[in-house]
Write a structure and sequence with these properties.
The complex is a heterodimer of chains A (322) and B (260). Chain A has 322 residues and is mainly α. Helices cover 76% and strands 0% of the residues of chain A. Chain B is an alpha/beta fold and 260 residues long. In chain B, strands 6-7-8-3-9-10 form a six-stranded mixed β-sheet, sandwiched between helices. In chain B, helix 4 (115-127) runs antiparallel to helix 5 (143-156). The chains are: A mainly alpha (322), B alpha/beta (260).
Chain lengths: 322, 260
């Protein structure tokens, strides 16, 4: 309980930092003023540019964090992450394809991303299950990398063959970032992500059991195949929604779940809300760093998350092999 | 009759021979039955078939007279607890949490733990001598302690029937005996149990009834003294054995040196 309060405080601090940092530095007092008074001098920047950006980064971060934690329980491997399992790659490829075909907008791109995410999930799952043998989680990560590489190559091909205008847009989007964040983008994300997010957090006890493995879960009273499908679909939808509004941002699903499991233990009822808050705060801060460290150039936020996530992944992988 | 299975046959996809062929099994309330046989004889497949974890090619299973397909997972978990053979978890659960998973089938999907749940967990921890371990992380436990935790989890389900799949694998002599004594006490208190093991000597000292499997078929079934014949066991295990008797008359297998 105490940890959740601290995480809430940290989340508020991260949001405040996200609102304050930018091309024009705005003090906390001025932010408060802008939020309360629509006529204050900084109101347009804070309300129309920074607030939707911070909100979107927080929601996407929280969503990717929960998707990561859930996938880790599902495939019983703490190294799982929507990016590493190829889900983000599949979603990205399908979204780029949709853009190349001239389908843009708040319905087509997320729908394509979801279809791509599902296909990638099925492919990864199929690649890593050999008839009758239990699923080896390390093979699953390997299969995810294979599928990611493949979708990456296809994306490059699609981009190369696209018109210059499409290419630029898709490329910018693909690198991942929140520079195009707006209130409509927040609404699109919530439209796709709210149901799976609530469903997953509500399935905490199911996730506890799934992480024990098929036989224990079934014998404890869980309809494991059905639960697994539901969780996989929800995590894919959540990932696809994130990819649709912010491109492919990797490793967010790895960092917060590990930190929170270390702090709070693996029980999902405590873990998932904490992961949502921590992961959301992390992405807000990563985004703030991405747009301020090499000003006036804005780094893709995926670069920042990879800079933090890859070393962590290396350490975890090394430990898991020991 | 708590469990009735008739002519169970299972064939895994792509396998040339069936893993299980026309096996019958009956279990009464408060009875202990041991299923024995060499590696790969279909013991674990039998357990999986009884619980509907593998598709049947032929045959039927009924618990308390109700056919298996009519049982929902949650309902079945209130009647039967399983201690699976192998189990690894990637996460660092506490013993108390792990045992608490046994309450899943008895709680609503969102309801918090009630007094009944805490009571059942407490009784299960006590039965398995784990009250001092409740806060321990499962990865810090020894093999014997981990087995006891998983039995406690099954007991927290408050089942009438307990399935144990090779529960003494990788346990030393003392832990082996302690585990069988525990199961034997539970049976004494009215639980029915089905133990799968290749450890026939141990089984003979505790088991009320024995079912011997070889290559997926039932070779013999009955009291250990009837099932454990030297010639039959030599054939089943593909190694010459002789049978000696303990002072109380319990048969024990002794494998011979030098294959003729």
């Amino acid at each position: 309980m105490k940890t959740i309060v601290w995480l809430l405080v940290a989340a508020l601090a991260a949001v405040a930092a996200g609102l304050a940092i930018g091309a024009t530095a705005i003090s906390p007092a001025e932010i408060g003023g802008a939020l309360l008074d629509p006529d204050s001098p900084h109101a347009p920047i804070v309300r129309q540019i920074r607030l939707p950006r911070v909100a979107l980064a927080f929601l996407v971060g929280g969503g990717l964090g929960v998707a990561g934690a859930v996938l880790q329980a599902l495939v019983r491997n703490p190294l799982a992450d929507p990016y590493l399992l190829g889900i983000s790659g599949g979603a990205g490829l399908a979204a780029v394809l949709a853009m190349a075909l001239g389908l843009a907008g708040p319905v087509a791109v997320p729908a394509a991303a979801f279809a791509g995410a599902l296909l990638a999930v099925l492919l990864v799952y199929r690649l890593s299950t050999v008839a009758g043998r239990p699923l080896d989680p390390r093979v699953l990560v390997l299969a995810g990398v294979v599928v990611s590489t493949f979708t990456g190559a296809l994306m490059t091909a699609v981009l190369t063959l696209s018109a210059a205008e499409t290419l630029r847009n898709a490329f910018l989007w693909l690198l991942g970032g929140f520079s195009a964040a707006s209130w409509p983008a927040v609404a699109v994300f919530l439209g796709y992500a709210a149901v799976p997010l609530v469903l997953l957090i509500g399935s905490s006890r199911t996730l506890d059991l799934l992480s024990l493995g098929e036989e224990p879960a079934q014998s404890l009273g869980l309809d494991a195949p059905r639960a697994r499908r539901l969780v996989y679909l929800s995590a894919s939808l959540l990932t696809a929604a994130s990819v649709a509004v912010s491109g492919v941002v990797g490793f967010v699903g790895l960092i917060a779940p590990h930190a929170m499991r270390w702090l709070l233990g693996p029980v999902h009822r405590r873990l998932l809300p904490a992961v949502f808050l921590a992961s959301g705060s992390f992405l807000v801060l990563a985004d703030a760093a991405a747009r301020s460290v090499v000003r006036p150039v804005e780094l893709p936020v995926g670069v920042v998350t990879a800079l933090v996530g890859v070393p962590l992944f290396a350490v975890l992988l090394h430990r898991s092999l020991r | 009759m708590i469990l009735q299975a008739r002519s169970l046959s299972v064939r895994y996809p792509g396998a040339p021979a069936p893993a299980l062929m026309d096996v019958d099994l009956e279990l009464r309330e408060g009875e202990l039955v041991v299923v024995g046989g060499p590696n790969g004889c279909g013991k674990t497949t039998l357990l999986r078939a009884l619980l509907g974890l593998v598709a049947l090619e032929r045959g039927e299973v009924a618990f308390q007279g109700v056919p298996l397909p009519a049982w929902r997972r949650r309902e079945l978990a209130r009647l039967v607890g399983l201690v699976p053979q192998r189990e690894e978890t990637p996460f660092s659960w506490r013993v108390e949490e792990m045992v608490g998973f046994g309450r899943y089938a008895r709680r609503g999907p969102l309801s918090p733990m009630g007094a009944e749940d805490h009571g059942a967990i407490e009784r299960a921890l006590e039965r398995c001598d784990l009250t001092g371990f409740r806060g321990r992380r499962v990865e810090t436990l020894s093999g014997g302690e981990w087995q006891r935790v998983r039995i406690a989890r099954a007991l927290a389900q408050e089942p009438k029937l307990l399935f144990l799949d090779e529960p003494t694998v990788s346990l030393d002599l003392g832990h082996e005996m302690a585990l069988f004594e525990l199961v034997s006490r539970l049976v004494g208190d009215g639980l029915s149990a089905l133990i799968v093991t290749h450890h026939l000597n141990l089984a003979a000292r505790f088991g009320g009834r024995m079912l011997l499997l070889a290559e997926g078929r039932a070779v013999a079934s009955g009291p250990p003294a009837e099932v454990m014949e030297a010639e039959r066991l030599s054939r089943v295990f593909r190694w010459p054995v002789t049978i000696v008797s303990l002072p109380d008359g319990t048969p024990q297998i002794v494998p011979l040196r030098d294959y003729p």
